[in-house]
């Protein structure tokens, strides 16, 4: 069979589902390639999409395939009253034998050179209104794989788990990551509310270039949680600690600034994420520009001074 692949999001980040489908078809002896022309016939073309229509518009289905299969979170998201809604019935899950195959990293050589990508856990109990993980993967973090399923000695590991610290098997999985000796990137962030001294010490023993956390909800006072971790972790390591700060979603500018200033004072690097950026007010977009540019952020420590200059 001849298989074509289309990354609807545009090759800006490795699509794990396409990498697994490629590996599965190649193991069967099929020919797999990126779809690129209507002049060639394909038995099956897979179209994968992670992001919503607002950020990643769909593209026409190819006409030169016997079968076209669309899948991914992006096809299950709709926009209602300015908020994204996820419909699980519109999403497609990979068959088990495809889900648990080692990905074909050759599809994205610019991202995957000596880097492994995968999930050790799925699901999250938080159920945040701006996040689709609860609807897609369930409201409980659970182990879905061991590290060896997608890692075979690569220097770097990019972990895509939504909330590994909420998993009952977290200690076993974190020990697997530590024992690998690879640089670990928890690219979806770690839940600071579930951090304890034992986990902080284990993280300190790992090869981690940057730790990611989030403080999305201004109504949650997480200052003491961040302070405890900073005190425990800073005695062992001075690597960068980034905290995503969600804005334009049930928060005022003053609440956004409180989180930003508090995190900076504790030695973290706040990083502003704007929900529905296209319709966000000018002040919020300026806040993101000010905070996420380290030169500006360090040169003009007060946002109001920056806002006045840009006004």
Q: Could you characterize the architecture of this molecule?
A:
This protein has a domain of 104 residues. The protein contains eleven helices and 14 strands. It has a four-stranded parallel β-sheet with strand order 2-1-3-4, covered by helices on one side. The protein has a three-stranded parallel β-sheet with strand order 7-10-11, with no helix packed on it. Strands 12-13-14 form a three-stranded parallel β-sheet. Helix 5 runs parallel beside helix 6 and helix 9 packs across helix 11. The mean pLDDT is 93.
Q: Please summarize the sheet with the most strands.
A: 4 strands, parallel
The helicity comes to 25-40%
Give the tally of β-strands.
14
Rough outline: globular
Strand order of the largest sheet: 2-1-3-4
Average pLDDT taken over every residue: 93
- As residue ranges, the low-confidence spans are none
Order of helices and strands: EHEEEEEHHEEHEEHEHEHEHEHHH
Overall SS class: alpha/beta
Oligomer: single chain
Query: What is the count of helical runs?
Result: 11
Q: Return Rg in Å.
A: 21 Å
From the N-terminal CA to the C-terminal CA, the straight-line distance is 60 Å
Strand-residue proportion: 15-25%
């Amino acid at each position: 069979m001849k298989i074509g692949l289309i990354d609807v999001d545009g090759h800006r980040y490795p699509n794990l589902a396409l990498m697994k489908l490629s590996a599965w078809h190649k193991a069967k002896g099929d020919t797999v390639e990126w779809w690129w022309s209507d002049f060639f016939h394909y038995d099956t073309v897979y179209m994968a999409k992670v992001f919503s229509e607002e950020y990643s518009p769909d593209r026409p289905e190819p006409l030169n395939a016997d079968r076209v299969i669309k899948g991914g979170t992006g096809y299950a998201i709709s926009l209602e009253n300015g908020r994204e809604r996820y419909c699980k019935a519109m999403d497609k899950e990979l068959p088990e034998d495809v889900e648990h195959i080692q990905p074909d990293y050759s599809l994205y050589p610019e991202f995957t050179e000596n880097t492994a990508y995968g999930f050790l856990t799925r699901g999250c109990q938080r159920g945040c209104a701006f996040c689709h993980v609860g609807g897609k993967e369930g409201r409980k973090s659970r182990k879905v794989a061991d590290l060896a399923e997608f890692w075979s000695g690569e220097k770097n590991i990019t972990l895509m788990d939504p909330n590994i610290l909420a998993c009952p098997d977290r200690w076993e999985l974190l020990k697997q990551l530590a024992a690998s000796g690879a640089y670990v990137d928890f690219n979806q962030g770690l839940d600071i509310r579930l951090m304890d001294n034992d986990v902080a010490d284990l993280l300190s023993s790992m090869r981690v270039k940057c730790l990611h956390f989030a403080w999305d909800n201004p109504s949650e006072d997480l200052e003491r949680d961040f302070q405890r971790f900073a005190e425990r972790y800073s005695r062992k390591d001075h690597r960068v600690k980034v905290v995503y700060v969600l804005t334009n979603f049930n928060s005022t500018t003053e609440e956004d600034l409180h989180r930003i200033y508090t995190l900076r004072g504790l030695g973290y690097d706040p990083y502003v994420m704007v929900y529905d950026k296209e319709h966000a007010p000018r002040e919020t977009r300026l806040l993101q520009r000010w905070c996420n540019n380290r030169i500006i952020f360090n040169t003009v420590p007060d946002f109001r001074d920056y806002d006045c200059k840009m006004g």
